[in-house]
Amino acid sequence: xxxxxxxxxxxxxxxxxxxxxxxxxxxxxxxxxxxxxxxxxxxxxxxxxxxxxxxxxxxxxxxxxxxxxxxxxxxxxxxxxxxxxxxxxxxxxxxxxxxxxxxxxxxxxxxxxxxxxxxxxxxxxxxxxxxxxxxxxxxxxxxxxxxxxxxxxxxxxxxxxxxxxxxxxxxxxxxxxxxxxxxxxxxxxxxxxxxxxxxxxxxxxxxxxxxxxxxxxxxxxxxxxxxxxxxxxxxxxxxxxxxxxxxxxxxxxxxxxxxxxxxxxxxxxxxxxxxxxx
Length: 278
What we know:
The protein is of the alpha/beta class and 278 residues long. The protein has a single domain (3-276), classed as Thiamin diphosphate (ThDP)-binding fold, Pyr/PP domains (Rossmann fold), CATH 3.40.50. It is 44% helix and 12% strand. It has 9 helices and 7 strands, in the order H-H-E-H-H-E-H-E-E-E-H-H-E-H-E-H. The strands form 2 sheets. Strands 1-2-3-7-6 form a 5-stranded parallel beta sheet, with helices on both faces. A two-stranded antiparallel sheet has the order 4-5. A hairpin with a 2-residue loop joins strand 4 (178-179) and strand 5. Helix 2 (29-46) packs parallel to helix 3 (70-80) and helix 2 (29-46) packs across helix 8 (212-224). The protein is globular, with a radius of gyration of 17 Å.
């Protein structure tokens, strides 16, 4: 897919995020919007997957370790054809298969039930180890939040991956700089993130999180890396794409009211129209 089409797809994913969170009257739009571009790239360019065969053995694995940003995850899975886009309106509703955290048993395309921060990456490391031991070719990707890096379990998993040289494992850090309690550096600073992963024997790539050409270069480099796991540290903007949500920690876990919903959707519609004219 060319970069323009990726941008157009990411714009639709952002609309899906706002639709889902508004319909639920709850959710996490800020971190979902910051992750929309990398999730779009993964599901439309990078991952070896088939929506018609979501359980195929040779598929690449993806773990949403920052498991609360399901609006983005479901938004991209719907765009990719794993389930109807209309079902996003049932997000977080009683009886829906689209709950606030991903559910491996009930949601097509989900490889790991996550939500307890730190645990998802450990499972991703286990998936990558399984591929190595069984000499299988699938790759494993895990999306981490920068606030999530405050969990000690992340670094236990990184230590193990680095020691085993799991070179089909890619850790992706959505470094938007904000978590529920404020700026990441003020709460419990994980910086310098790149140096920490390098110390655990990871190949480290730093890239712009909303630049599809940069994302392509980063993931191509990860594929070419042998003998080491890769950590891709993405500089991103919390709330990206909706101006009044950008870099505002209050949108970590707040749903837009009707007026804010209309304003956000109008802004995304304008951006979508501009991309169609490009």
